[in-house]
Amino acid sequence: MTSTEPSATRLSATGRRRPDGVVRRAAMEFGRTQSAIGHARDFTVDFLERSASTAAGAVDAARLVVSELVTNVVKYAPGPCRLELVLHTGLLEICVHDTYGALPVARPRDPERVGRHGMEIVLAICTGVEVEPTAHGKRVRAFLPLH
Q1: What is the DSSP letter of 77?
Q2: Cβ contact 92:48 at 8 Å
Q3: Which residues of 48-83 are buried (b: 16+ CB within 10 A; e: fewer)?
Q4: pLDDT in tens, 61-109
Q5: 43 Cβ partners below 8 Å, 6+ apart?
Q6: Which of 33, 72, 103, 127 could bridge across to 16 with cysteines, CB 3.0–4.6 Å?
Q7: Residue 107 carries which DSSP code?
Q8: What is the pTM for the complete model shown?
Q9: What H or E segment, with its residue span, contains residue 128?
Q10: What DSSP line would sit under 17-46, residue for residue?
């Protein structure tokens, strides 16, 4: 049997395992506007505050990861996008779907570089990041521990 779906690319895997048991999920659609970044951050904080007793540091980390991923979408994707949050026991899965086919680049650490640190930040905070090409762009999935 031949699969027509491209396989996922793992940007980082620091011991992450497939999450168990979905506790709760939510999604939002947004356009390519600057306000989408703030709306996505607020949506994430609201989701976590309503879902579980999550440490304040984990909420801040989730807000930062969402901000970086959605900023990339606003800067580079030509069309509508989708943010999905999936709460597993002790883990938040952050999925960002966009219409831009180019895969994100994780650049090496460079304190002299101005900007373009988004994926570097996401990789430093999350236990794993996967990028999967889709028929209409790509999906970036980041896995963030909540404890």
Answers
A1: -
A2: yes
A3: beebbebeeebbebbbbbbbbbbebbbeebeebbeb
A4: 999 999 999 998 998 888 789 999 999 988 999 999 999 988 887 777 7
A5: 26, 28, 66, 83, 85
A6: 127
A7: P
A8: 0.82
A9: strand 128-134
A10: -PPP-EEEEEEEEE-SSTHHHHHHHHHHHH
